[in-house]
Design goal:
The termini are far apart. The protein has 14 helices and 4 strands. It is mainly alpha-helical. Helix 2 (about 55-70) crosses helix 5 (about 135-145), helix 3 runs parallel beside helix 10 (about 260-265) and helix 6 crosses helix 7 (about 175-195). A two-stranded antiparallel ribbon has the order 1-2. The protein has a two-stranded antiparallel sheet with strand order 3-4. The protein is globular, with a radius of gyration of 20 Å. It has helices at about 5-15, 55-70, 90-100, 125-130, 135-145, 170-175, 175-195, 200-220, 235-250, 260-265, 290-305, 310-320, 320-335, 345-355; strands at about 25, 30, 45, 50.
Length: about 350
């Protein structure tokens, strides 16, 4: 793993490459080459793995190990080495790092800042807190399900005085039983998927359904992070809620968050924390793609709110089959990535799709 002196220099180079969100380095998630490639490379004590999820490379290592351990069961996802839906998670973590969203939002410490420790992940960051539920929890579940070998025990580190994060499988299962049981179900489904007689497209769709059930259970459990939203501007909090709302659409469509697709959807996300007065699609120092994505996320939540939640319900009811979910993924791609795609078209297509269910 990379020597500490090199962290800031590499990160500074990565961030300076573009004003847009930077999530790739040599075709892989940023700083991927500096992460642990084997569980034995993680910190350990008395035979127990003790990774520090409040250090960026340790948290990113959880993803690298998770992807490597689950890849042998991912054959239905495709033939390439980066087809697993888990790839969206390290890319998302990289975006949070380079956009400043893992740093201490209170300003009380230099955690996560270039002038402090750029690899530090703040326990006060709402983004870091929410990401904990999709990094620590699945890793603990995977270890419990034997993906890293028999009898591998994990005890996550936590900064002194911080008590609102679970650190072991038993602890997380007690605090967040629904999320942990759904991650368990996903890893169990993975292990038996190779024996399934379903065609690969149906097997893939089924696995993605179980995966997104776990992802969304983690997202719902992360409501425990809500108090940390008070550290941010009203514009950033609005984006937070729009971002959470968008997950309802992505999950219902069983989006295959592989490396290629996730890069497309994450690159247009805002490359910095939003400030008071930032009004998309007219934020001057964000590029056209960033402004468009912010506008669409806002539109999706506002329309759903105006309709009393009907848009999300319509969407979920339309995602009723392998075929409609495939159309749904194409529709989301058009809406989020094609500025010329009319929002009215999105609404009319959804309405039409529900009649085929």
């Amino acid at each position: 793993m990379l020597r500490p002196a090199g962290f800031g220099l590499i990160l500074a180079c990565v961030v300076s490459l573009s004003s847009a969100a930077v999530i790739l380095e040599n075709g892989m998630p940023i700083l991927w080459a500096q992460t642990a490639s084997q569980p034995t490379e993680l910190p350990s004590q008395n035979g127990i793995l003790t990774p520090d999820p409040w250090h960026f490379l340790n948290r990113m290592s959880l993803y690298r190990l998770l992807i490597a351990a689950s890849d042998p069961f991912m054959g239905s996802m495709g033939t390439g080495p980066t087809e697993s839906p888990l790839w969206g998670l390290p890319l998302q973590l990289g975006w949070m790092l380079t956009s400043g969203r893992l740093a201490d939002p209170t300003g009380a410490t230099t955690c996560g800042l270039q002038t402090g420790d750029p690899m530090c992940i703040s326990t006060q960051s709402w983004w870091a807190c929410v990401n904990y539920f999709t990094s620590a929890l699945p890793f603990l579940s995977a270890a419990q399900q034997g993906l890293f070998g028999p009898d591998v025990q994990v005890q996550l580190q936590v900064p002194a005085g911080v008590e609102d994060y679970c650190t072991t499988y038993a602890d997380c299962s007690t605090r967040y039983p629904d999320a942990m049981s759904k991650w368990d179900a996903f890893f169990q489904a993975l292990k038996v998927s190779s024996e399934s007689v379903l065609p690969d497209n149906e097997k893939k769709d089924s696995l993605l359904g179980v995966y997104w059930a776990a992802q969304m259970a983690s997202t719902y459990a992360s409501a425990a992070c809500n108090a940390r939203q008070s550290h941010y501007s009203s514009e950033e909090v609005s984006f937070v809620n729009n971002w959470l709302n968008s997950a309802e659409y992505v999950s219902a469509a069983h989006f295959q968050a592989n490396l290629e697709k996730s890069t497309l959807f994450l690159t247009p996300l805002p490359s910095r924390i939003l400030r008071e007065g930032d009004v998309p699609p007219n934020v001057a120092d964000l590029n056209q793609e960033e402004n468009h994505s912010l506008y669409i996320f806002s539109w999706m939540r506002n329309i759903n709110t105006m309709l009393g939640g009907t848009l999300v319900r319509l969407w979920k009811s339309a995602m009723c089959s392998v075929a409609t979910r495939e159309k749904g993924r194409e529709l989301l791609e058009q809406l989020l990535l094609n500025p010329g795609f009319a929002t009215s078209t999105f609404l009319s297509i959804i309405t039409g799709m529900t009649t085929s269910c």
